[in-house]
Amino acid sequence: MDNFYNYPLLIKQLLISPLLSNPDQMIINEKNISYNYKTFNNRVSILSNSLTHIGVKKGDTIGVMDWDTTRYLECFFAIPMMGAILHTINIRLSEQQILYTINHADDDFLLINEDFLPTLNKIKDGFERDIKIIIMEGIKTETKKQKSKSNYLYYEKFFEINEPNFVFEDFDENTVATKFYTTGTTGNPKGVSYSHRQLVIHTLGFIVGSSTSNYSHRFHNEDVYMPLTPMFHVHGWGFPYMATLLGVKQIYPSKYEPKKLLELIKNEKVTFSHCVPTILQMLLNENKNLNYDLSNLKLIIGGSAMPKSLAIEASQQGINVISAYGMSETCPFLTVASIPSKNKENNDSSLIDLKCKTGKPGPLVDLRIVDENFNDIVRDNKSTGEVVVRAPWLTNKYIKDKEASKKLWEGGYLHTGDVGYLDNTGSLIITDRMKDVIKSGGEWISSLQIEAIVSKCKDVDEVAAIGIADKKWGERPVIIVSAKDTVDKKNLSKIIKNSIQLQIERGYLSKWAMPDKINFVSEIEKTSVGKINKKFLRKQFN
Question: Which range of residues forms the domain containing residue 508?
């Protein structure tokens, strides 16, 4: 018993399998930078060695500002593996929000892409502590450029002066591994953290949840993976950890430019990715001109509901789309859509409906639908309540926010803030965010239902339904539509109202769902992670 190894669930353990089974598999950056898993492991060791030499110690927090690159993947492993904390900084936040997150997270070091130096220069006087800066320059950056910024340390220089001999010791698996901040549309973003144990179990749980289906959307070790969700957002939804554990070929696109992404998908034969609906729409629009064959691409859609019209368009271009559900506070995996084998060959409306469903709870996910008294809602395929969950990978709390943490875990379950029900197949159906449900004339109206109907109307690019304060009725629905300038807005408004009226007559919608007004905009405001910013829209149109 003295020699028994009490195996801790640490990030370093995710590297064991690929190094044993597939060490020669490639990891590729879009700038013609590539190396195999063996070299990746060496670079992780060198990075940890280098960070130690410049003063990083266990428990220190290291903020990272980068595009989606192979260097970011190195940071995903090296920083937590040495016992430090990785803070993935949301580069799409405002400058003041970025400054807030750096200070709130207690960052000790910053690894920052050269492209973000203008932002750094604007905010660094607001740092509340002495922060050492390391520049993540390109591997082929010219020496002259380096000399001009000699007051900074340089990431790639680490690999010229250090050796891959870092010893990754065991430590408590409950040690914090990562921090990041949820999108803040009003006020400051909230900080979320995860331990090594939570991240490892999430990786295993998500692999099981996304790989056990007999349908062709499963993620497996022969896939070619490329992220289309920013790596700063919930660890790239956890997929970089999954892809590394499975030892698959990985492609990192750097900036998200539609043409470049499609070229990478084509040239590198990418088979698996994930993104929010707005990114998918961007790719589909671009591919109308390029007409690339996308029939080998499996794409998980999350972040917000996938409109049926978007799923149809993606299927028409050959993409195998499927929905999943989670949030920043859940690491994020909770559910994934499931397609029974009897349906997998169909291309009709019923198959599209299955793909758009939020999906079934994953392994170890304890999901309940509860009323305001925390009682379970009867499963009658229509009655809704708040979605609350338990799983071994959910965040414990918000960083430095006891009150919000208490509300998050009230009753011993994590409160998602989403409203929905479990249908007769066991799939979760999200009907709305609690804060986005519209109450008019005493009736609850789902903004998602309205959006689903309007999105199917020809010439509608994007749609958002919001509730606007009304003295007589409490709230009234208002629809915001993005459409081309050339579209006849008067005629489109008529089509939209007729479509809504038809669903009212069929009993699908309450009569109160007919909007008082339809507003047309060139583009609907988004949050930093590509979701429709309803808080902003309510303020704009109220």
Answer: 435-542
Residue in 407, 439, 517, 539 annotated catalytic:
439
Distance, in Å, from the CA atom of 481 to the CA atom of 513, rounded to the nearest integer, reads 16
Q: Evaluate whether residue 539 is within a structural domain.
A: yes
Q: How many domains does the chain have?
A: 1
Active site residue 439: yes
For residues 11 and 80, give the distance between their C-alpha atoms in angstroms, rounded to a whole number: 7
Residue 504 falls within a domain, yes or no? yes
- The residue among 92 and 22 whose pLDDT is bigger is 22
**Which residues sit opposite 457 in a β-bridge?**
none
Pairing of strands 428-433, 414-422: antiparallel
| 61 given a catalytic annotation | no
The pLDDT tens digits for 196-228 are 999 999 999 999 988 766 556 788 889 999 999
The CATH code of the domain that includes 528 is 3.30.300.30
> How would residue 147 be classed by pLDDT, with cut points 50, 70 and 90?
very low
Q: Are strands 360-361 and 85-88 parallel, antiparallel or unpaired?
A: unpaired
Catalytic residue among 182, 271, 358, 384: 182
Average pLDDT, the chain: 88
Please report the DSSP string for 191-260 in residue order.
Answer: EEEEEHHHHHHHHHHHHHHHHS-SSTT---TT-EE---S-TTSHHHHTHHHHHHHHT-EEEE-BS--HHH
Q: Which of 173, 329, 386, 451 is catalytic?
A: 329
Q: Averaged over 351-356, what is the pLDDT?
A: 83
Angstrom CA distances, 346 to 219, 310, 313, 514, stand at: 21, 17, 16, 34
| In the chain, % of residues over pLDDT 90 | 59
- 253-276 pLDDT, tens digit per residue, is 998 899 999 999 999 999 999 998
- Greatest Cα pair distance in the chain: 79
Which parts of 132-189 fold into alpha helices (H)? 143-147, 158-161
Model-level pTM?
0.84
Is residue 34 domain-resident?
Answer: no
Domain membership flag for residue 394: no
| CB-based contacts of 361, cutoff 8 Å, min separation 6 | 334, 335, 367, 426, 428
462 a catalytic residue: no
Distance, CA of 354 to CA of 349 (rounded, Å): 9
Catalytic residue flag (residue 400): no
Quick one: DSSP state of residue 150?
Answer: T
Q: And the tokens for 363? A: 């392994």
Residue 432: partners with Cβ closer than 8 Å, 6 or more residues away: 418, 419, 420, 446, 447, 448
Active-site position among 52, 141, 444, 456: 444
Comparing CA positions, the residue from 400, 222, 395 lying closest to residue 298 is: 222
Residue with tokens 């409950």: 174
C-alpha atoms less than 13 angstroms from C-alpha of 391 in its C-beta half-sphere:
33
Tens of pLDDT, residue by residue over 429-470, are 887 766 677 867 656 677 878 888 898 888 888 898 888 877
Which of 350, 336, 359, 352 lies closest to 428 in space, CA to CA? 359
